[in-house]
Amino acid sequence: MEETISLQDLFKTLKKRLALILTCMILAITVAGVLSYLVMTPTYQSTTQILVNQTQQEQGEFTKQEIDTNLQLINTYNVIIKSPRILDLVIERLTLDMTPSQLTQKISVNSEQNSQVVTVSVQDPEPHRAADIANTTAEVFEEEIPKLMNVDNVNILSPAVVGDNPAPVDPNPPLNMAIGAVIGLMIGVGIAFLLEYLDTSIKAERDVEEILGLPILGLISPIPESDVNLDNVVRTRRKRR
Question: Rounded to two decimals, what is the model's pTM?
């Protein structure tokens, strides 16, 4: 019974403070939308893929052991791509006004599962510069990796290109506004229950029992307004008589 009453109180509180909760949600959605569309700088992403193999044997075929070795070296290639040895040359060729550490934050390198394909993704506020950085990084890696390791079979599978109407990958206004709605809902519900907890006024007989710890001996029923008006009319007529 107590759980049922508690659940009823919960819904009563939410219904009572519904306007406050909706206001918090709308305010949070508005703030998220303004930040996403007007404040946050759009970021574009370009991606290129590289196929890396070790030195090919004379017969033109790779053994299973060589393929397994290539797969194990993928992590090494990922580190090399983001190393100053590669990024310094990228900065020099593109005359970028940034350091290798700053450029590293724009580049992410991933390898496809159980494959020798390395994916280089670059995020930048300018879509064309993102594509240039991705392509130049792949080209520099293709030129420098034979000097660093026993690899002479590097191919760029798909260079980064910029479409006619590139769409930013960040920020994502619909997602941000959805997150804002959830946060606003949580804040609104929290404020509603806080106000209900701080409200110590007595509104019903049950409040007397809970707050004062006294039993209810009796209730005075409210007099309907129609009965009050009728009683006044009767008294007025008696006075006239």
Answer: 0.66
